[in-house]
Amino acid sequence: MNLQRRSKDEPEVNLTSLIDVVLLLVVFFMVSTSFVREAEISLRLPEANAEAPPLAASDGLEITISQTGAYAVNGRPLVNNERRTLQAAIERLAGDDRDLPVFVRADAQASHQAVVTALDVAGQSGFVEINIATVTSTED
Protein backbone atom coordinates (compact mmCIF):
# COMPACT_ATOMS: atom_id res chain seq x y z
CA MET A 1 0.00 0.00 0.00
CA ASN A 2 1.48 3.18 -1.17
CA LEU A 3 0.23 6.06 0.98
CA GLN A 4 2.30 8.78 -0.45
CA ARG A 5 0.52 11.82 -1.63
CA ARG A 6 0.69 12.57 -5.23
CA SER A 7 1.69 16.05 -6.15
CA LYS A 8 -1.21 17.75 -7.78
CA ASP A 9 -0.34 19.86 -10.75
CA GLU A 10 -2.11 23.16 -10.96
CA PRO A 11 -4.28 23.27 -14.05
CA GLU A 12 -3.00 25.76 -16.56
CA VAL A 13 -5.53 28.02 -18.26
CA ASN A 14 -4.50 29.31 -21.64
CA LEU A 15 -6.14 32.72 -22.20
CA THR A 16 -4.66 33.34 -25.63
CA SER A 17 -7.55 31.82 -27.55
CA LEU A 18 -10.11 33.62 -25.35
CA ILE A 19 -8.44 36.98 -26.01
CA ASP A 20 -8.38 36.25 -29.74
CA VAL A 21 -12.10 35.52 -29.78
CA VAL A 22 -12.95 38.64 -27.77
CA LEU A 23 -10.88 40.84 -30.08
CA LEU A 24 -12.54 39.33 -33.13
CA LEU A 25 -15.96 40.04 -31.64
CA VAL A 26 -14.99 43.64 -30.88
CA VAL A 27 -13.77 44.16 -34.44
CA PHE A 28 -16.93 42.54 -35.83
CA PHE A 29 -19.23 44.80 -33.81
CA MET A 30 -17.24 47.91 -34.69
CA VAL A 31 -17.44 47.15 -38.40
CA SER A 32 -21.08 46.11 -38.42
CA THR A 33 -22.37 49.04 -36.35
CA SER A 34 -23.93 51.85 -38.30
CA PHE A 35 -23.44 55.30 -36.88
CA VAL A 36 -26.62 57.27 -37.50
CA ARG A 37 -26.91 60.84 -36.31
CA GLU A 38 -30.63 61.32 -35.97
CA ALA A 39 -30.40 64.42 -33.80
CA GLU A 40 -28.37 66.31 -36.38
CA ILE A 41 -29.96 69.30 -38.07
CA SER A 42 -28.90 70.84 -41.33
CA LEU A 43 -27.85 74.47 -41.29
CA ARG A 44 -27.44 76.87 -44.15
CA LEU A 45 -24.74 79.23 -42.99
CA PRO A 46 -24.71 82.81 -44.24
CA GLU A 47 -22.09 83.92 -46.70
CA ALA A 48 -20.52 87.35 -46.79
CA ASN A 49 -21.46 89.37 -49.83
CA ALA A 50 -19.93 92.81 -50.13
CA GLU A 51 -21.87 93.64 -53.30
CA ALA A 52 -25.37 93.68 -51.83
CA PRO A 53 -26.08 96.52 -49.41
CA PRO A 54 -27.69 95.47 -46.15
CA LEU A 55 -31.41 96.02 -45.90
CA ALA A 56 -32.53 98.86 -43.72
CA ALA A 57 -34.78 98.16 -40.79
CA SER A 58 -37.49 100.26 -42.46
CA ASP A 59 -37.67 97.63 -45.21
CA GLY A 60 -38.90 95.00 -42.77
CA LEU A 61 -39.78 94.23 -39.19
CA GLU A 62 -37.29 94.82 -36.41
CA ILE A 63 -37.74 92.92 -33.15
CA THR A 64 -35.55 94.35 -30.41
CA ILE A 65 -34.92 92.43 -27.19
CA SER A 66 -33.62 94.30 -24.18
CA GLN A 67 -31.38 93.01 -21.42
CA THR A 68 -34.41 92.24 -19.26
CA GLY A 69 -36.15 90.35 -22.10
CA ALA A 70 -38.60 93.11 -23.01
CA TYR A 71 -39.65 93.16 -26.67
CA ALA A 72 -40.04 96.13 -29.00
CA VAL A 73 -41.31 95.83 -32.57
CA ASN A 74 -40.11 98.57 -34.96
CA GLY A 75 -39.13 100.69 -31.98
CA ARG A 76 -42.46 100.39 -30.16
CA PRO A 77 -42.16 98.64 -26.79
CA LEU A 78 -44.75 95.99 -26.01
CA VAL A 79 -46.88 96.05 -22.88
CA ASN A 80 -45.56 92.69 -21.67
CA ASN A 81 -43.10 89.95 -22.58
CA GLU A 82 -45.64 87.32 -23.51
CA ARG A 83 -45.53 85.31 -26.70
CA ARG A 84 -49.11 86.22 -27.68
CA THR A 85 -48.41 89.94 -27.38
CA LEU A 86 -45.34 89.67 -29.61
CA GLN A 87 -47.24 87.64 -32.19
CA ALA A 88 -50.14 90.11 -32.25
CA ALA A 89 -47.77 93.07 -32.69
CA ILE A 90 -45.93 91.36 -35.55
CA GLU A 91 -49.13 90.40 -37.34
CA ARG A 92 -50.60 93.87 -36.86
CA LEU A 93 -47.58 95.62 -38.35
CA ALA A 94 -46.95 93.16 -41.18
CA GLY A 95 -50.53 92.63 -42.25
CA ASP A 96 -50.67 89.94 -44.93
CA ASP A 97 -47.17 90.59 -46.27
CA ARG A 98 -45.03 87.63 -45.17
CA ASP A 99 -42.23 88.45 -47.62
CA LEU A 100 -40.87 91.17 -45.35
CA PRO A 101 -37.49 90.44 -43.78
CA VAL A 102 -37.49 90.16 -40.00
CA PHE A 103 -34.48 91.45 -38.05
CA VAL A 104 -33.96 90.26 -34.48
CA ARG A 105 -31.67 92.51 -32.43
CA ALA A 106 -30.88 91.37 -28.93
CA ASP A 107 -28.83 92.80 -26.12
CA ALA A 108 -25.72 90.79 -25.29
CA GLN A 109 -27.13 90.11 -21.81
CA ALA A 110 -30.58 89.05 -23.07
CA SER A 111 -31.56 85.47 -22.32
CA HIS A 112 -31.44 82.84 -25.04
CA GLN A 113 -35.07 82.01 -24.31
CA ALA A 114 -36.21 85.51 -25.26
CA VAL A 115 -34.30 85.36 -28.55
CA VAL A 116 -35.54 81.87 -29.40
CA THR A 117 -39.11 82.91 -28.59
CA ALA A 118 -38.84 85.88 -30.99
CA LEU A 119 -37.41 83.66 -33.74
CA ASP A 120 -40.10 81.03 -33.13
CA VAL A 121 -42.95 83.55 -33.22
CA ALA A 122 -41.65 85.04 -36.47
CA GLY A 123 -41.30 81.59 -38.02
CA GLN A 124 -44.74 80.44 -36.93
CA SER A 125 -46.25 83.65 -38.29
CA GLY A 126 -45.12 82.63 -41.75
CA PHE A 127 -42.04 84.78 -42.26
CA VAL A 128 -39.31 83.11 -44.26
CA GLU A 129 -36.48 85.65 -44.17
CA ILE A 130 -35.51 85.92 -40.51
CA ASN A 131 -32.19 87.59 -39.73
CA ILE A 132 -30.21 88.00 -36.54
CA ALA A 133 -28.57 91.39 -36.43
CA THR A 134 -25.01 91.57 -35.24
CA VAL A 135 -22.64 94.37 -34.38
CA THR A 136 -19.31 94.50 -36.15
CA SER A 137 -16.32 94.87 -33.90
CA THR A 138 -14.32 98.09 -34.22
CA GLU A 139 -11.27 96.48 -32.60
CA ASP A 140 -9.51 95.39 -35.81
One letter per element, helices H and strands E, the order comes to HEEEHEHE
Radius of gyration: 32 Å
As a percent range, the share of strand residues is 5-15%
Q: With helices defined by DSSP (H or I, 4 residues minimum), what is the helix count?
A: 3
Overall geometry: rod-shaped
CATH architecture of the domain at 60-132: 2-Layer Sandwich
Helical amount: 25-40%
Describe the biggest sheet? 5 strands, mixed
Spatial strand sequence of the major β-sheet: 3-2-1-4-5
Which structural class do you get from the secondary structure elements?
alpha/beta
Describe the structure.
This protein is an alpha/beta fold and 140 residues long. It has a domain at 60-132: Nucleotidyltransferase, domain 5. The radius of gyration is 32 Å and the shape is rod-shaped. It starts with 15 loop residues before the first helix and ends in an 8-residue tail after the last strand. The longest helix is centred in the first third of the chain and has 17 residues, at 16-32. The protein has a five-stranded mixed β-sheet with strand order 3-2-1-4-5, with helices on one face. α2 (83-94) packs across α3 (112-124). Helices cover 30% and strands 13% of the residues. The protein contains three helices and five strands, in the order αβββαβαβ.
